[in-house]
């Protein structure tokens, strides 16, 4: 996402939710929008701290919590003991699932869905919505196993 558009677009989103777009928030949004990796709060802090030496880890955690409440960021638990974060919009807007290697912790974003998979997901969402009277807005699917490199080692 280009820097100018990010500042203006995200600033409006913050104002629309009743928050200000502070400099630390701008920096954290820039870090998140500038990567294709799933960063931990500590990873985000290390990158943001290079730009703003005064920013603390607590600010990163508070901002991430706010971003999750706003629906801008999703928090993932990939089973390695560290929460990871990803934007729900912008560079990460394409629907995807995750393949997670339980040996090396490699994370693969899976986007090349087969028609049968999409049909199954649509049926599952429709059935769950009806059964539980629940309006599903999104879902997160994670598959755990061994990547090809780790399979060959075993």
Briefly summarize what is shown.
The chain is α+β, with helices and mostly antiparallel strands and 154 residues long. The chain folds into two domains: 93 residues, Winged helix-like DNA-binding domain superfamily/Winged helix DNA-binding domain (Arc Repressor Mutant, subunit A); 61 residues, Ferric-uptake regulator, C-terminal dimerisarion domain (Dna Ligase, domain 1, 2-Layer Sandwich), CATH 3.30.1490.190.
Q: What does this protein look like?
A:
This protein is of the alpha+beta class. The chain folds into 2 domains: 1-93, Winged helix-like DNA-binding domain superfamily/Winged helix DNA-binding domain (Arc Repressor Mutant, subunit A, Orthogonal Bundle); 94-154, 2-Layer Sandwich (Dna Ligase, domain 1). Helix content is 48%, strand content 15%. It has 6 helices and 5 strands; from the N terminus they run H-H-H-H-E-E-E-E-H-E-H. The protein has helices at 3-16, 23-33, 41-51, 57-70, 115-132, 148-153; strands spanning 73-77, 83-87, 97-101, 107-110, 142-145.
